[in-house]
């Protein structure tokens, strides 16, 4: 092919792509909104749509029960779903780019295992002596402490080690140690406690409260824009650490920043919802395919919106598919996410 | 008539045949009314064929008789390992706890005095830990005549396979899967077959059955049935018994109107928080299906852990109950459990009744 023709076709392609981004991002945004609306208006309790609208806009429903179902149960849960989806997806994307590894998720550095360990200590290890039953907020705090604890250890290590594969392996090992300790605790615990603990490890958006949603929203409103701000140096990372260095990126500082943002996002979600599987791994891939770019300036907003959409969609399935029986959220995300990732990886091989 | 020859030979050659022909009472059947998971068939010369909860056929042969050629269990059994609390409570009713040499729970988890005492005296060993896989080596060393276990959970199924592989005689007591409270108790007849105590079991069962009928008649005339919410909630996840479960049946026998009776199935089901909330709103009584310390013993503590419960009627009215820790070790007291429920639902019919298997949560 003639070189000039190739050049023009490439730039035409680029132009077409740039035209495509707002459209795709817009679709994601509309998707997130649609599922938010569906999550608020659908449920095992039938609430007429006009009632739902009036209640959401601050009015009275036909009964006060509808009002409290929507305000106390559905809205916090629906918003939590959006925020958790966005946070996990961006956490996953940052680490995928950072490690240049497509099978990395936000929990790869042992965040969820750290959270699980502290929750196990409280729930199974009898570290709640003096409490008749563990207060849920205390549990969330413990999970947050565990997740952040692992994060700070990884950051401390990251400041020391040179190459990132070592860091990845160390993160994995941290995860193994934490899960091993949790399993020790399970072996000595009573079955009633183990049952509740297993429920926690399945993850759920159910029972979210407004104070939890607020904390989640504050964390997301700080960390998600921060991730967008680092999208440019993150792009330099696509071509390797050496390249990033030559572009004037302070690699050491940047490393810590990426680990901090992604882990903090995953930690906050895990603290309240438990480890929610797969959103963080699958959504960045889906966003990349839909948008057809690796440019993080586009990909990060895309992932934020798509993460919210997918998490809401999966929660909607979990709640309504076999209503009034509810499925665990990690089951629907994995069932939906895993085939998508397989298809994407197969497609990618064909393209290469 | 060819088939009869080896049969005769076997009897003639067996050393114990002469003395036992008269001592074994011949029985033809045991009535089974509610349970559906087991069968007992009486064969010739005191042998029995018992079909257990997994559909396996076990041949029970009188202890004094030696038979060659097939696997069998010598009865009455003298050394027994029990891996479920419901089996142990049925054995209590049969008065044969002395045969127990191994159980699945630690001493502090038992509320059956004979078991606690047996452990103190070193007669009973702990061979497992709740619902996890048991300690096979210990069980093998105990040389039990039979292991009573259950299936339905993955670990229990694995344990069952392992026993078969090790050649340890195992009988599956799946009474917990029965959908009628009396069906759960009726497994006492299954266990009794291993002790030649079918008559005692039948008598005991009928006594309880009549008592249950009596309670039911007492409440049947009442028009106004209280609406009952039964279940547990944790971090927004709600578990309730399905409409075909034994708990649902027990509520209706005791004169209550179970709020999730339309839920299909027999076991437990996970329902959405809003469904639990909306229906709970109309309930008169809330029975929390756990026992302290796994549930707070005060309403205040319960609401603190699940703020959404503050709105539901039984919580506002202070009509919240939970199990006593020995609830699951009391299958033999099914009549008393149902009486407790009836007294909760219709206090005026049972004045001065003291609850034994449920407790009322304090306001806190």
Overview of this structure, please?
The complex is a heterodimer of chains A (352) and B (364). Chain A is mainly alpha-helical and 352 residues long. Chain A has helices at residues 3-41, 49-56, 64-99, 111-123, 136-160, 164-188, 191-202, 210-229, 231-237, 241-246, 251-273, 279-291, 296-320, 329-351. Chain A is built from 14 helices and no strands. Chain A is globular, with a radius of gyration of 22 Å. Chain B has two domains: 7-207, Rossmann fold; 220-360, Nitrogenase molybdenum iron protein domain (Rossmann fold). Chain B has helices at 4-13, 17-20, 85-94, 113-120, 136-142, 154-166, 181-193, 198-220, 246-253, 273-281, 299-305, 313-317, 334-345; strands spanning 39-42, 48-51, 57-62, 73-75, 80-82, 100-103, 125-126, 146-149, 170-172, 227-234, 237-241, 257-258, 268-271, 285-288, 320-323, 358-360. Chain B is globular, with a radius of gyration of 23 Å. The chains are: A mainly alpha (352), B alpha/beta (364).
What is the compact description of this entry?
The complex is a heterodimer of chains A (352) and B (364). Helices cover 78% and strands 0% of the residues of chain A.
Secondary structure: elements and pairs:
The complex is a heterodimer of chains A (352) and B (364).
Chain A: H1 3-41, H2 49-56, H3 64-99, H4 111-123, H5 136-160, H6 164-188, H7 191-202, H8 210-229, H9 231-237, H10 241-246, H11 251-273, H12 279-291, H13 296-320, H14 329-351
Helix pairs in contact in A: 1-3, 1-13, 2-3, 3-8, 3-11, 3-12, 3-13, 4-5, 4-6, 4-7, 5-6, 5-11, 8-11, 12-13, 12-14, 13-14
Chain B: H1 4-13, H2 17-20, E1 39-42, E2 48-51, E3 57-62, E4 73-75, E5 80-82, H3 85-94, E6 100-103, H4 113-120, E7 125-126, H5 136-142, E8 146-149, H6 154-166, E9 170-172, H7 181-193, H8 198-220, E10 227-234, E11 237-241, H9 246-253, E12 257-258, E13 268-271, H10 273-281, E14 285-288, H11 299-305, H12 313-317, E15 320-323, H13 334-345, E16 358-360
Parallel strand pairs in B: 3-4, 5-6, 5-8, 6-7, 8-9, 10-12, 10-14, 14-15
Antiparallel strand pairs in B: 1-2, 2-3, 10-11, 11-13, 15-16
Helix pairs in contact in B: 3-7, 7-8, 8-13
